[in-house]
Backbone:
């Protein structure tokens, strides 16, 4: 019995810990409003835990404030609505002010360590992230998920997203 309990504890611990190598980047605020909201620097860490064969890859994104507080997000690339929201010119691109061929990434909040440093005491529900080839990073905090409805012709369409539900617009430079 004791061996079974120990094996179960090790298995649960392995599931809880984000696996895979972490890639860390220092982000420097690119404008005054970003500096006022989160300070001069954040650290962005990404992990790619192993996923079952045939599954969409999972990306775990952690933003770390200089004082040690963290916000963690998982890639939102599994549900059809999440995929539709992230396409070029899609709902997330429009919310972020990207109207060309840019395809931002959507992340759903999973956990935090300490008080959130984005979007007030509740923190963001979701995050939009877009990075240019030159290392410029735009992050948008969202207070609610992007919602969709089925039109009479059967197609899915994003509902209008209120600007009041955008709780942070940040610009950084990687490096």
Residues:
């Amino acid at each position: 019995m004791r061996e079974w309990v120990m094996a179960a504890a090790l298995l649960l611990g392995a599931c809880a810990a984000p696996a895979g190598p972490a890639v860390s980047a220092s982000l420097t605020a690119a404008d005054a409003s970003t500096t006022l909201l989160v300070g001069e620097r954040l650290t962005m860490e990404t992990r790619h835990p192993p996923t079952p064969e045939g599954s969409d890859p999972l990306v775990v994104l952690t933003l770390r404030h200089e004082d040690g507080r963290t916000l963690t997000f998982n890639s939102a690339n599994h549900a059809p609505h999440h995929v539709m929201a992230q396409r070029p010119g899609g709902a997330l691109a429009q919310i972020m002010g990207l109207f060309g061929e840019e395809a931002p990434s959507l992340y759903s909040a999973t956990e935090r360590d300490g008080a959130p440093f984005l979007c007030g005491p509740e923190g963001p529900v979701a995050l939009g992230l877009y990075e240019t080839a030159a290392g410029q990073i735009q992050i948008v905090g969202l207070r609610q998920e992007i919602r969709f409805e089925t039109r009479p012709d059967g197609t899915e369409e994003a509902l209008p997203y209120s600007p009041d539900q955008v709780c942070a617009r940040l610009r950084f430079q990687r490096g």
